[in-house]
Amino acid sequence: MELNQIYTQILTEHNNSKRNKHHIENPTATLKGVNPSCGDEIELELREKNGVIEDAGFTGVGCAISQASASIMIDLIKGKSTDEALKLAQTFFGMVKNEITDEKRLEVLDEAIALKDISHMPARVKCAVLGWHTLENAIKGEKDPE
Amino acid sequence: MNPWAEDFPILKETINGKRLVYLDNAATTQKPVPVLKAVDDYYRKANANPHRGLYALSVEATQKYEDARRTVKKFIGARKDEEVLFTRNASESLNLVAYSYGLTFLKEGDEIALPVSEHHSNLVPWQMVAQAKGAKLVYLYPDAQGRLTDAEIGAKITAKTKIVALAHVSNVLGSIYPVKKIVEKAHSVGAVVVLDCAQSIPHYPVNVTELGCDFMAFSGHKMLAPMGIGVLYGKEELLNRMPPFLRGGEMIEYVHEQSATFAPLPQKFEAGTQNVGGAIGLDAAIHYLRNVGYDRIQKTENELLNYTLDGLAEIPHVTVYGGTDNRANRCGVISFNVEGVHPHDVATVLDAAGVAIRAGHHCAQPLMEYLCVNSTCRASLYFYNTKDDIDVFLAALRKVRGWLGLGA
Q1: Predicted pLDDT of residue A145
Q2: Start-to-end C-alpha separation, chain B
Q3: What average pLDDT score do residues B228-254 get?
Q4: What's the CA gap between B12 and B321, in Å, rounded?
Q5: Which residue of A84, B76, B310, B382 has the fewest C-beta atoms within 10 A of its own C-beta?
Q6: Cα–Cα dist A85/A77, whole Å
């Protein structure tokens, strides 16, 4: 494992950028995602209209991989239908678990492909998928516990 | 050159193509050849189920297991063999006290006093007791230098206190707590003291008779022995009044269809086949530590601690937690953070340089809340570490922010 395969420019830029890390106006869904063992905690907000994700943002704390992955995800899902977003999530899970390796199938993930080498770091896969799992659960209507 | 490093074969391993720099000794320590050999010899030449067989090999296994108990007794200054119980680890020892003593003797309204810095293993079992019995957990808060002040001890340990649970040394802050003073205060109000020495006994001599604690727990694997062997010391008169924790083979006297009577100490608390190989490894580890000598362990570690703290102070964007003023009152457990970088990313960058540190909440989430941090990095030293190890660590640490696209 080489550090430059993990801490790529795409990853560090997203991690250091606040572009997608903020609350959004009038969210229709808000959900927390946590990795209790590492203390990563994000809160994802979505605004959905007629089945399309109009806007999305996240807040919280976590490692560079979890934060950048969530930011890249938000770039990808804005303007997409919730069904498309769920499909992207499945493709992303396939990539980081090394189950989908066909580059053509991964093209839809665009900048998220920068996280491909996480599949060689089993301890960090859960960081990369935190945002995507939270997205999946939010679209499926899961609510934060009272 | 460190005279002891040669005894630890794993220190010659490479990680990511780099020499292993092992700085996660508060999590577990590496094992020297004499410990490995003692365990290997036992399984090659003396393995049998102790206390049961009537044949020579079983007698030998029993003898080695009981020899290990005597070695531990002397090592911790206990008065009797019966006061030394073998467990899996400090967590099991502390659970034994919580389930057997706590659930039996605590009543509604009683208080359990403990520092907020406790490891989950000496905190979550007491939450269970408090919930089951209607007792209350009362926390002692360390000051900014990681110390428990006399005022805090006086305010929190009161006539209502029935149990004081604390670690000798904090596994996050490295603070050495004034155990003797706390024991005196606890006994003056009639409370019993449950002392967790998992982080202290690898580095400092612990004498239970001098300290006067009622229970004391530690793990073998944090002091050179194999994983899966731990110790609970308890005062004989307390252990005799307590019901068994686990029930089954070897801990009974007579068993009838509807009832049973139990074996005397220590068998009463050692149900089922015990970890004889682990106990023999612990015996060998204690002999090894005795040969090195606590004075030399402390001298080596204090030099390394000062060297590390001085080095960290020179690196911009690094915050060290716990006492930095009074270094005499802390041990070689150093929690820190790099500004703008999550501890897991710090650990990953250091790993690429062959440096093993811990990152996370260190099984001390209430302390993390109290410190208002999400998690920290932790480097922890042992006597086989060298200044060269620290140099590699510090050099890798200087590069962390660069890898994350931040200014150095």
Answers
A1: 82
A2: 32
A3: 96
A4: 31
A5: B310
A6: 6
Interatomic CA distance for residues A2 and B309, integer angstroms = 29
Contacts across the A-B interface (CB distance below 8 Å): 55
**Edge-to-edge strand order for the sheet containing B136-140?**
B84-87, B230-234, B215-219, B192-196, B161-167, B111-115, B136-140
Q: Which amino acid is at B233?
A: Y
Alpha carbon B234 to its chain's center: 16
Query: How far is the alpha carbon of B37 from chain A, nearest alpha carbon, in Å?
Result: 32
Residue A60: band (very low, low, confident or very high) from pLDDT cuts 50, 70, 90: very high
Are B377 and B319 contacting, i.e. CB atoms less than 8 angstroms apart? Answer: no
Nearest-CB residue to A39 (from B341, B348, B375): B375
On whether any CB of chain B is under 8 Å from the CB of A65, the answer is yes
Token digits for B98?
Answer: 């919580």
Domains and CATH numbers, chain A: 3-139 (3.90.1010.10)
In chain A, what residues touch B340 (CB-CB under 8 Å)? 16
Tell me if A124 and B348 make a contact (CB, 8 A cut-off): yes
- Give Cα separations from A127 to A38, A85, A132, B133, B180 (angstroms): 9, 19, 10, 39, 44
For chain B, what are the domain ranges? 5-23+294-403, 35-289
Separation of alpha carbons A83 and A87, rounded Å? 6
Mean pLDDT over B73-88 rounds to 98
pLDDT (tens digit per residue) in B266-285: 999 999 999 999 999 999 99
Could you read off the pLDDT of B101-124 as tens digits, one per residue?
A: 999 999 999 999 999 999 999 999
Q: Residue A75's closest CA among A143, A8, A131, A9?
A: A131
Query: Mean pLDDT across chain B, nearest whole number?
Result: 95
pLDDT band at B328 (very low <50, low <70, confident <90, very high): confident
pLDDT tens readout for residues A122-133: 888 999 999 999
User: In this predicted model, what pLDDT tens digit does every residue of B339-360 receive, in sequence order?
Assistant: 999 999 999 999 999 999 999 8
Residue numbers in B near A67 (CB within 8 A): 342
Which tokens belong to A102? Answer: 């066909």
**How big is the CA angle at B196 (ends B185 and B232), to the nearest 5 degrees?**
110
pLDDT classification of B247: cutoffs 50, 70, 90: very high
Choosing among 3.40.50.150, 3.40.250.10, 3.40.50.11310, 3.40.640.10, the CATH entry for B35-289 is 3.40.640.10
| Chain centre distance of CA B213 | 16
Domain B5-23+294-403 in CATH 3.90.1150.10? The answer is yes
Instruction: Give the residue carrying structure tokens 């009683």.
Output: B110
pLDDT band at A1 (very low <50, low <70, confident <90, very high): low
Which residue does chain B place closest to A127, by CA atoms? B344
Q: Residue B323's pLDDT is what?
A: 74
In a 3-state reduction of DSSP, which class is residue B149? coil
A37 — pLDDT class (breaks 50, 70, 90): confident
Interface residue of B317, B342, B397 to substitute, partner A, most A CBs within 10 Å: B342
DSSP conformation class of B258: S
Catalytic status, residue B363: yes
